[in-house]
From TrEMBL, chain A:
The protein, known as: Phosphate transport system permease protein PstA
Annotated ranges, domain ABC transmembrane type-1: 208-415
Primary subcellular site in the record, as a coarse category: membrane
Cellular component annotations (GO), alphabetically ordered: plasma membrane
TrEMBL record, chain B:
Keywords: ATP-binding, Nucleotide-binding, Phosphate transport, Transport
GO BP terms in the entry: phosphate ion transmembrane transport
Protein name from the UniProt record: Phosphate ABC transporter ATP-binding protein, PhoT family
Tree of life domain: Bacteria
SMART domains, alphabetized: AAA
SUPFAM superfamilies: P-loop containing nucleoside triphosphate hydrolases
GO-annotated molecular function: ATP binding; ATP hydrolysis activity; phosphate transmembrane transporter activity
Length: 426, 265
């Protein structure tokens, strides 16, 4: 009688209908789930592919290699700071394009170099004054319009009036290219340069160092405070109306919009305490305010997950509450706590709004040496670049987003690894 | 059903270890123990039996104040260990638990080495001055728990890697390492297979030489096999307390008789 296969006692019509409806509901539910996941995956794919599509061009940078004769008449040890480096560079190109002689044309010829080229040359000669009077080989970035031209982002078939390079300049460029002077190596400057007004020189070093300092400060504040608060609330606090109130407020705190924390930091840390604006120290303190609820919640969950049998075992041999918590429960909860902390820090790394309010979106052309120096952070740097009009910043913005995403994915991967490696099954 | 000869031991002349008078336990508004009087003798195995929810575990946990860790739990009445009130304000529950060891239902070794499991109690109570002292305590405790021969070559391996029965004996070794006077066992064999159960029961009988043992058990056969005194709990009352032989062969209360013959429970 327990045989339920199709050829056993036939089901009544009502029962059959009921069964069919039930199966249909199950199929619909599964269909919805698959549709939702496919939609999410598609959106992710579109996001990443559009970022990569525009961003990959920023991972190379067009360089020009020239033989520069360091003319002692233009450059001398006595007046190094304001030597005629531009003239020397200009002359090096004129050697290749001898027909250019008009003053205005020469100026435009010089425009092929990035504005940083003269400083690169100056630094070389300051480092080694014996180069004066000799010919040096210099490989420097080209300025943004020619970088765009080389990457095909400035189209040659656009009418001349509507593009930033003239037909003559294109002709110069092509001749230099045929002479093998123009190359497109990997753009390490994206990671090793600080910010600049010139896209071809702008890099993320300042933002990376600024984010590092801010995250370090954030970790040093939120990790001990968050764990301390969680241990007290979970293990020691009496369960009464006050602890309930605190718990509700901590959960609410985790949901407070981040811009509010930025305003708070502006008023308290900068206004009251007089800490410097744009400093990673203040940024880190602000991010710590946001990360702390996340760490508290994650730590409490991890402490709760330690089975009561371990507490009982320790209490049973006469461990005090403090010994139980620090000797047994906390070490066992550590993987969960670390996972929560890393995820909290990853969130903090991507946080933009509070940093804008405390001035970490300033234009700063050197990496901060300490948490007290002015700096930007990765997300605010993206914000600044996205706001810049130069064409070169379009691909650099995408590239910076890819760098930020790489860090986020790495941090989350570490969290997942820690969880799977150290998680204990009871 | 049980082997009777073991029951005929004379235990009357032993000293009283625990004496409980008029003990009530409340969980919030619910009264879980409703006035229990019992004397627990030294060098004796006392079994608490009774149906689920009758309060036998709750009462056991009063004896080392493990109930203190439950916020809503309140204990009234008088429980004396060697004549001293253990609920007196001057008594530190931490010290009490070193003197009254406990073994739990599910083997719960710490996720540490076998050595560290046993050495944990002596360490936190400062019982060993030198490493050699500690080594001696660990060896002695493991011998007492009949685990030395199996564990001596793998003291540095995790205690959680042992079999269930070995883990439970490790927990017993951990409990005896602080030189307690009383061992409380809360259904110590309910998670073990019959062979491991037999080993632990044999061990309990040996432990009686040095300790007063109180064991909560669901198995009446086990109570009959290992204990000299038996207390039958029902709905928070201590219904009957007496020599194990008498409880199982000639119960005075009809509830006891119903339980041991399987009609309630």
């Amino acid at each position: 009688m327990t045989d339920l296969s199709a050829n056993s006692a036939p089901l009544g019509a009502a029962q059959r209908n009921h069964l069919r409806r039930r199966n249909r509901h199950q199929l619909m539910l599964q269909g919805f789930g698959i549709a939702a996941i496919s939609f999410a995956a598609l959106m992710l794919f579109i996001l990443v592919s559009s970022l990569v599509g525009t961003g990959y061009k920023a991972f190379t940078q067009t360089h020009i290699q020239v033989e520069v004769f360091v003319d002692p008449e233009e450059v001398s040890v006595e007046k190094l700071p304001r030597g005629g480096f531009r003239d020397v560079l200009q002359a090096s190109l004129q050697a290749q394009l001898p027909e250019v002689s008009e003053r205005a044309d020469l100026r435009r010829l010089e425009g092929l170099f990035s504005n940083g080229a003269q400083f690169r040359l100056r630094d070389m000669i300051v480092a080694d004054p014996s180069l004066i009077g000799q010919t040096v080989t210099l490989r420097v970035p080209m300025s943004d319009p020619f970088d765009q031209l080389a990457k095909g982002l400035v189209k040659r078939d656009t009418p001349e009036a509507q593009r930033r390079v003239t037909d003559q300049e294109i002709a110069w460029f092509d001749r230099l290219d045929q002479a093998g002077m123009i190359t497109q190596p990997l753009n390490w400057g994206l990671l090793t340069n600080a910010d600049s007004r010139f896209p071809e020189l702008a890099g993320l070093k300042g933002a990376l160092v600024g984010s590092f300092w801010a995250l370090l400060v954030c970790f040093l504040i939120s990790f001990p405070l968050g764990i301390g608060a969680a241990i007290y609330l979970e293990e020691f606090a009496p369960k009464n109306r006050w602890s309930d109130l605190i718990e509700v407020n901590i959960n609410n705190l985790a949901a407070v919009p981040s811009v509010v924390f930025g305003l708070l930091a502006l008023a308290v840390f900068i206004g009251w305490f007089g800490l410097p604006r744009s400093a990673p120290l203040v940024g880190g303190m602000t991010l710590a305010l946001m990360t702390m609820p996340t760490i508290i919640i994650a730590t409490r969950a991890a402490l709760k997950a330690v089975p009561p049998s371990i507490r009982e075992a320790a209490l049973g041999v006469g461990a005090s509450k403090h010994q139980v918590v620090f000797g047994h429960v906390l070490p066992l909860a550590m993987p969960g706590i670390l996972t929560g902390t890393i995820i909290g820090l990853a969130q903090a790394l991507g946080e933009t709004a509070p940093l804008l309010l405390i001035g970490m979106n300033a234009f700063i052309t050197s990496a901060p040496g300490s948490p007290l120096d002015s700096a930007t952070a990765l997300p605010t740097q993206i914000f600044i670049w996205a706001d810049s009009p130069e064409r070169g910043f379009v691909s650099r913005t995408s590239a910076a987003i890819l760098v930020l995403l790489t860090f986020l994915i790495t941090m989350n991967a570490i969290a997942i690894y820690l969880r799977s490696k150290f998680e204990r099954k009871w | 059903m049980y082997d009777a000869p073991k029951l005929e031991r004379n235990v009357d002349d032993r000293t009283i270890k625990f004496s409980a008078r008029n003990v009530h336990v409340f969980y919030g508004e619910t009264e879980a123990i409703k006035g229990v009087d019992v004397d627990i003798l030294d060098n004796t195995v006392t079994a608490f039996i009774g149906p689920s929810g009758c309060g036998k575990s709750t009462f056991l946990r009063c004896l080392n104040r493990m109930n203190d860790t439950i916020d809503i739990c309140r204990v009234t009445g008088d429980i004396r260990l060697d004549g001293h009130d253990i609920y007196d304000r001057s008594v530190d529950p931490v010290q009490l638990r070193a003197k009254v060891g406990m073994v739990f239902q599910k083997p719960n070794p710490f996720p540490k080495s076998i050595y560290d499991n046993v050495a944990y109690g002596p360490r936190i109570h400062g019982l060993a001055r030198t490493r050699a002292d500690l080594d001696a305590i660990v060896e002695q405790s493991l011998r007492r728990a009949a685990l030395w021969d199996e564990a001596k070559d793998r003291l540095d391996q995790p205690g959680t890697g042992l079999s269930g029965g070995q883990q439970q004996r490790l927990c017993i070794a951990r409990a005896v390492a602080t030189s307690p006077e009383v061992l409380l066992m809360d259904e110590p064999c309910s998670a073990l297979d019959p062979i491991a159960t037999a080993q632990v029961e044999e061990l309990i009988d040996e432990l009686r030489q040095d300790y007063s043992v109180v064991i909560v058990t669901h198995s009446m056969q086990q109570a009959a096999r290992v204990s000299q005194k038996t207390a039958f709990f029902h709905l928070g009352h201590l219904v009957e307390f007496g020599d194990t032989g008498q409880i199982f062969t000639n119960p005075h209360d009809e509830r006891t008789e119903s339980y041991i013959t399987g009609r309630i429970g």
